C-alpha cells in the first residue's frame, strides 16, 4: 500500500479560524480526516509543525513514505533550507497552497523557493488542492 506524507507548515494548525475568507472554515484535523476517508487504499501520514527544522527532520525520515504533499505555508517564500531538503529527497513532492498565492496582494507571496524543486504546484483551489495533489501522486505511481 502506498504511503503519502502530508506535511503542513507554519500557521496551518490555525485552519478554520485563521482568515476563513481566504483559507476556508475547515479545520486541519477535518481536512485530514476527509482525505483519509476519500483515499481508503492509501496510508496517509500527517504532520504539521510551525518549525522549519522539524519539517526538514520529518522529510529526512525517508523510509516512512513514498511521496509527499507539502503546504509549506510562508516557508514556501523564504526557506532555502526546506528547498535544499526537498531537492535531496529522491521521492515525488507536490506543493499545495490553499489560496492563489499569485493573486494575493502581498507580492512576496508571488514567489516560492520550493516550486523549482517539486514535481508541481497546486494553488488557489482551497483544501481541494490536497485531493488534487494526491490524485497526481496516485497517477504517477500507477504509471510506474
Ligand atoms: C499558504 C499561502 C502562504 O502564502 C501563507 O503564508 C500560508 C498559507 C496557502 O495555503 O495558501 O501560510 O501556503
Number of strand elements: 5
Count of alpha/pi helices: 6
Instruction: Give the mean pLDDT.
Output: 96
Give the CA-CA distance, first to last residue.
14 Å
Give the key terms.
single chain; 144 residues; alpha/beta; 5-stranded parallel β-sheet; 5 strands; binds 1,3,4-trihydroxy-5-OXO-cyclohexanecarboxylic acid
Description:
- A five-stranded parallel β-sheet has the order 2-1-3-4-5, with helices on both faces.
- The protein has helices at 20-23, 28-38, 52-60, 75-78, 80-87, 128-143, and strands spanning 3-8, 43-48, 67-71, 93-97, 120-123.
- The longest helix has 16 residues, at 128-143.
- The mean pLDDT is 96.
- The chain is 36% helix and 18% strand.
- By secondary structure, it is an alpha/beta fold.
Sequence-ordered SSE layout with sheet pairings:
Elements (H helix, E strand, L loop, with lengths): L2 E6 L11 H4 L4 H11 L4 E6 L3 H9 L6 E5 L3 H4 L1 H8 L5 E5 L22 E4 L4 H16 L1
Helix pairs in contact: 3-5
Bound molecules: 1,3,4-trihydroxy-5-OXO-cyclohexanecarboxylic acid.
The site of 1,3,4-trihydroxy-5-OXO-cyclohexanecarboxylic acid has 10 residues, from loops.
Amino acid at each position: 500500500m502506498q504511503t503519502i506524507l502530508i506535511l503542513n507548515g507554519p500557521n496551518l494548525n490555525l485552519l478554520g479560524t485563521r482568515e476563513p475568507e481566504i483559507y476556508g472554515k475547515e479545520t486541519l484535523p477535518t481536512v485530514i480526516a476527509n482525505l483519509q476517508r476519500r483515499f481508503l487504499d492509501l496510508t496517509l501520514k500527517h504532520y504539521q509543525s510551525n518549525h522549519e527544522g522539524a519539517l526538514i527532520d520529518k522529510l529526512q525520515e525517508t523510509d516512512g513514505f513514498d511521496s509527499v504533499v507539502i503546504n509549506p505555508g510562508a516557508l514556501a517564500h523564504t526557506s532555502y533550507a526546506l528547498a535544499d531538503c526537498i531537492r535531496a529527497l529522491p521521492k515525488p513532492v507536490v506543493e499545495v497552497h490553499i489560496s492563489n498565492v499569485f493573486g494575493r496582494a502581498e507580492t512576496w507571496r508571488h514567489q516560492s523557493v520550493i516550486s523549482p524543486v517539486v514535481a508541481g504546484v497546486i494553488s488557489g483551489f482551497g483544501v481541494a488542492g490536497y485531493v488534487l495533489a494526491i490524485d497526481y501522486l496516485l497517477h504517477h505511481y500507477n504509471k510506474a
